[in-house]
Write a structure and sequence with these properties.
The protein is α/β, with parallel strands linked by helices. It contains 12 helices and 11 strands. Strands 3-4-1-5 form a 4-stranded mixed sheet. A 4-stranded mixed sheet has the order 2-6-8-7. Strand 7 and strand 8 form a beta hairpin. Helix 4 crosses helix 7 and helix 10 packs across helix 11.
């Protein structure tokens, strides 16, 4: 048995990929990753550095975001927007919503003792929101350009799949380890082993790639389009986040000096102008041999200026936030 999502023709037409990384969803997944022990090679340096910077209120917020289970949805917004805007909107959460979500969690898994007074205590709510601010600035803010780079590269790959085979191609290839497309049903193996049938009823689904997700997650809120979160770049997960230690992403890498030169700059410009282009397409755009284009993209990738995804027999190149910033600085 599995979690089964049933699509109609109308659902397929309304299925789409999120336009950008979802900050609070990514924060919830990062908070969970902080508390578990998986992916030690890639994340332990980040965990050690982050734990030393958590405030009392940050640890308080973390206790509502367990490594396995449910978090209150008002802390895990699936909305687009800047992190600052979304954190401010969180402060306007109605008391009745806080109460209803915590009551649901009490029946599902329990909540910390302090949280039982949360709906009635405004000061306690403010401490929680301060804790969420602390979690954002400690866990994600220093690494947000790298996170958005992972998500944008995955989105470019999905857009090519949409162009070549439609939404059914995307559903078939997005996360084949945990998802299987058996028209008109998407079959998902869930970490908690839950069996369920979700009939979309014409709403479609929002596909949300995530840098910190390790498996497929489903969020079905009756008031909005269901969201399916999956690991971005499933075949090469989090490879540029291997060293999430102090300064690992915020500073320009040493390999940046290797980018000086006319041809390599032209390659970077071409990738920015044609995201998700293949090496063969890139060579034609710049007017160089494919072997030369491959050599230049290797250097650009090592300097964290582009992301590369494999698609069938091709590799597709997309600029990172750092690559775009470098180009903008040259204008």
């Amino acid at each position: 048995m599995a979690y089964l999502i049933h699509f109609t023709t109308e659902d397929l037409a309304r299925t789409k990929v999120t336009q950008a990384a979802l900050p609070l969803m990514e924060l919830d997944l990062a908070a969970r990753a902080l508390q578990d022990r998986s992916r030690p090679v890639r994340l332990d340096a980040w965990r050690q550095e982050a734990r030393g910077r958590l405030s009392v209120h940050g640890r308080m917020a973390l206790s509502l975001m367990p490594p396995v289970g449910w978090s209150p949805t008002f802390l895990d917004s699936s909305l687009n927007g800047s992190p600052e805007e979304l954190l401010q909107q969180m402060r306007a959460t109605p008391r009745r919503r806080i109460r209803s979500e915590l009551e649901l969690l009490v029946h599902r898994q329990g909540i910390p003792d302090w949280a039982r007074q949360l709906p009635e205590e405004r000061d306690l709510q403010e401490q929680l929101y301060q804790g969420m601010d602390n979690l954002w600035h400690v866990l994600l803010a220093p690494h947000w350009p790298a996170v958005t780079g992972v998500v944008n590269a995955d989105r470019s790959l999905r857009m090519r799949q949409f162009a070549e085979g439609g939404v059914e191609s995307v559903l078939a290839h997005t996360n084949p380890r945990w998802m299987r497309w058996k028209p008109p049903v998407l079959e998902i193996r869930m970490a908690n082993g839950i069996d369920h049938d979700l009939h979309l009823g014409g709403r479609g689904i929002l596909l949300a790639p995530s840098a910190f997700a390790t498996r497929t997650l489903i969020e079905d809120d009756i008031d909005q389009q269901p969201i399916l979160t999956y690991p971005a770049a499933g075949d090469q997960p989090l490879r540029q986040l291997t060293s999430l230690g102090p300064g690992a992403v915020s500073a320009a890498p040493p390999g940046l000096a290797a980018l000086l030169g006319h041809t390599r700059s032209a390659v970077l410009y071409a990738i920015a102008e044609h995201p998700a282009c293949s090496t063969k397409e890139l060579a034609a755009l710049v007017g160089i041999a494919p072997a030369s284009a491959s050599e230049h993209t290797t250097v650009l990738r090592g300097a964290r200026l582009i992301e590369t995804q494999r698609h069938r027999n091709s590799v597709l190149h997309t600029p990172t936030a750092l690559g775009v910033a470098l180009l903008n600085a040259q204008v």
